[in-house]
TrEMBL record:
One of its GO terms (biological process) is DNA damage response. Pfam families: SIMPL (PF04402). The keyword Kinase does not apply. InterPro entries: 26kDa_periplasmic_antigen, SIMPL/DUF541. Gene3D superfamilies: Protein of unknown function (DUF541), domain 1 (3.30.110.170), Protein of unknown function (DUF541), domain 2 (3.30.70.2970). This is SIMPL domain-containing protein. Keywords: Signal. Coiled coil: none annotated. Residues 1-36 form the signal peptide. PANTHER family: PERIPLASMIC IMMUNOGENIC PROTEIN, SLR1258 PROTEIN.
């Protein structure tokens, strides 16, 4: 009779199967996903859909004195030859410039334009040069109170045309007035909004938008006298009254209520 071999259990660890590893990975991912979901209290609250917006525009006006006169004047001469007119213009313009340089109140003095051009006549359908016109234009800034008398003196020295006199306020004064006008416009817009909402038993929540529409101050210009020869300057003194200048700003507020 043959004898049976003794039983020996096999405790050798087997290699994990691919299916087992896949299930383990999915389980870990599922656990992490569950932990990443925030609770209801941590979610941001949606904006109140019942809020509405009111748009209102305020206006601010500030008046400031005009403290600056920007003067444009010049010398214009006509003659038969270009040499003659150019020489006469140069002499007269030099005299005017020397006068202006001698006055400490004159600021930003400069030559704005020099021009020499022929004048034509037409005879029998043909064009012919009949002479020349030369101009030299000068610009400067001065206190309006002094501008009238200085213009008269410039005419005596040889100026033959006054192109314009612009009366404005100084740059720093305009900047300050614009800021003040914005403040007034903002206050005006807020006052209007509060009055309207109060009448309707509504309450302001917050300002959600601001738009500033700032208007540029107007510049007053005296009419041009460029085509008028100023020969007799002894008749009267040129009066110039500056007055005031208006600076305006508009502010639009978007108000949630």
């Amino acid at each position: 009779m043959s004898r049976l071999a003794p039983f020996k259990p096999n405790f050798k660890a087997s290699t994990p199967s691919k299916q087992y590893l896949l299930l383990l990975t999915l389980a870990v991912l599922g656990l992490n996903a569950c932990q990443a979901v925030p609770n209801a209290q941590s979610l941001p609250k949606p904006e109140n859909p019942n809020y509405k917006t009111l748009s209102v525009t305020g206006r601010g006006i500030v008046k400031i004195p005009k403290t600056l006169a920007k003067v444009h004047l010049g010398v214009e001469v006509q003659g038969k030859t270009s040499q003659i007119v150019q020489q006469e213009v140069a002499q007269r313009a030099s005299a005017v410039v020397e006068l202006l340089k001698s006055r400490s109140q004159v600021k930003e003095l400069e030559t704005s334009d020099i021009n020499l051009q022929p004048n034509y006549t037409y005879t029998g359908g043909k064009q012919k040069i009949s002479g020349y016109t030369a101009t030299n234009r000068i610009m400067f800034e001065i206190d309006p109170k002094l501008s009238g008398s200085l213009i008269d003196e410039a005419v005596k020295k040889g100026a033959t045309r006054i192109d314009s006199v612009n009366l404005v306020a100084g740059n720093s004064a305009i900047t300050e007035a614009q800021q003040e006008a914005i403040k007034l416009a903002s206050t005006d817009a807020n006052r209007q909004a509060n009055a309207a909402l109060s009448a309707l038993n509504l309450k302001t929540v917050e300002v959600v938008g601001i738009q500033i529409n700032q208007a540029q101050p107007p510049v007053i210009s005296y009419p041009s006298a460029s085509n008028q020869k100023l020969i007799d300057s002894t008749l009267a003194q040129t009066p110039i009254v500056a007055g005031s200048q208006q600076v305006e700003a508009n502010v639009t507020l978007q108000i949630k209520y």
